[in-house]
Design goal:
1 helix, binds copper (II) ion, Immunoglobulin-like, 114 residues, four-stranded mixed sheet
């Protein structure tokens, strides 16, 4: 596990920067709602969110520290989000719904697909 996380840290900046815009624009083209989650004071706000398949969840980090939104079993990952930046995913029917921050594992969030 330690090796996996170390490798992620190295890749975080470049991959997040390239991946986020293309994921976002394809989801928006499908007409999904964009749900905003603020990351502030080492918490996801809101911690629980209700979404539909095809919606977009966008996390925006207001902390100085970088954060991620990462599925508990790593099925999806925003990768590192720096201060003032955002990361997003598109909701799929079979996606993992519990997530955390790989840098601060006490930070947890839940996605409810309704
Ligand atoms: Cu964090």
């Amino acid at each position: 596990m330690a090796t996996l996380i170390d490798r992620r840290n190295v890749l975080v900046g470049a991959v997040a920067f390239v991946a986020a815009p293309s994921i976002g624009s394809s989801a928006l083209a499908m007409g999904g709602t964009v749900h905003q989650i603020k990351i502030t004071r080492f918490k996801f706000d809101p911690e629980i969110i209700q979404v539909k398949v095809g919606d977009v969840i966008r996390w925006t980090n207001t902390d100085v520290a970088p954060h991620t939104a990462t599925a508990d079993k790593f099925g999806w990952d925003t990768l590192g989000i720096a201060k003032g930046e955002s990361g997003e995913i598109t909701v799929t029917a079979d996606m993992e719904t519990s997530y955390f921050c790989v840098y601060h594992p006490h930070m947890k969030g839940e996605i409810e697909i309704v």
